[in-house]
Amino acid sequence: MQTLGERLQEARQRLGVTLREAAEFTKIRTDYLQAMEANQFESIPLAEVYKRGFVKVYARYLRLDDEKACSDFNTHHSVRAARRPLDAAGQEEEVPFEPVEGASLTVNRDTILWIVLGVALTALFAWVFFH
Asked: Which parts of 1-131 fold into alpha helices (H)?
């Protein structure tokens, strides 16, 4: 069975496109495309989300199934997939909350929203009256 990188390289060669031409069209750096075709995704110094996006764009450019390419990337190359066991992939680890002794301030999203809104309105009134 072919790796994702081998399928990308084979599709590019089948279309008769050079790496440079592919890089110019997709706006993905040539060295990143080379790393992808060599199945060395870990050598691309970017977050997984960017690598996944590059795989999707490049696969679409090469007229491959971009969803399958992303799925293959997620299965075989994702750092997250390598770090977590399969049975815990959908579960988030719970961190117990322990309140700090003596702390009585509770701030929720609504409180922050009202504070931001108040500051914005105060700034608007100050600008209108003193401008």
From this structure: 4-15, 19-26, 30-37, 48-61, 66-76, 79-83, 109-130
Q: Are 42 and 31 in contact (CB under 8 A)?
A: no
Contact predicate 48/74, CB 8 Å: no
Look up the domain containing 17 and give its range: 4-86
Radius of gyration of the chain (CA): 24
pTM of this structure: 0.60
Number of domains in the chain: 1
Residue 130 located in a structural domain? no
Report the b/e string of 1-29 with b at 16+ CB within 10 A: eeebbebbbebbeeeebeeeebbeebebe
Give pLDDT, residue 112.
85
Say if 34 falls within a structural domain. Answer: yes
